[in-house]
């Protein structure tokens, strides 16, 4: 009887040791997977846009251009230029560049700046705006003519969202 007891205790200990190893392996694999599926946040993200006549708004969210950014101080900088114009046009109208953070219920504007393009075709105008502190998340850019209407000019631009 004593022999049977020792053998069953030994088998029980082996089974428990084996179970512990399996549980530890499952926990390590789960932890590794959780780390890998987290979204990657870059410290800067570039964007470019084209607003040909008669356009007056470019929406990054509707175009699927989203930026995953970490927490920090956001700086939106870039360049824009008018590359074509219609006859007898007005303006060019000022360009409004806004950055929004996607939210669960609604999106929040975190940056807004107005840039006056040059009336000389292909003359580059630079811009930069310190939007202050932001939290980590998904952001997008909306570019529009300030008057909310077309002005007969075709505009292009490039920009970068940088987080320090």
Q: How would you characterize this protein structure?
A:
- This protein is an alpha+beta fold.
- It is 22% helix and 45% strand.
- It contains one helix and nine strands.
- It has one helix at residues 2-37, and strands at 44-51, 57-59, 67-69, 72-85, 95-101, 108-115, 125-134, 137-145, 153-163.
- Strands 2, 3, 5, 6 and 8 form a five-stranded antiparallel beta sheet that branches. A four-stranded antiparallel beta sheet has the order 1-9-4-7, with no helix packed on it.
- The N and C termini lie far apart (72 Å).
Which labels suit this protein?
164 residues; 9 strands; 45% strand; 1 helix; rod-shaped
Q: TL;DR?
A:
This protein is α+β, with helices and mostly antiparallel strands and 164 residues long. It contains 1 helix and 9 strands, in the order H-E-E-E-E-E-E-E-E-E.
Low-confidence stretches: none
Decide which structural class fits the backbone.
Answer: alpha+beta
- The radius of gyration computed from the alpha-carbon positions, rounded to a whole number of angstroms, is 28 Å
Say how many strands there are: 9
The chain-level mean pLDDT equals 86
Per DSSP, the total helix count is: 1
Largest sheet: 5 strands, antiparallel
Strand content: 35-45%
Question: Which helices and strands occur, and which strands form pairs?
Answer:
Elements: H1 2-37, E1 44-51, E2 57-59, E3 67-69, E4 72-85, E5 95-101, E6 108-115, E7 125-134, E8 137-145, E9 153-163
Antiparallel strand pairs: 1-9, 2-8, 3-8, 4-7, 4-9, 5-6, 5-8
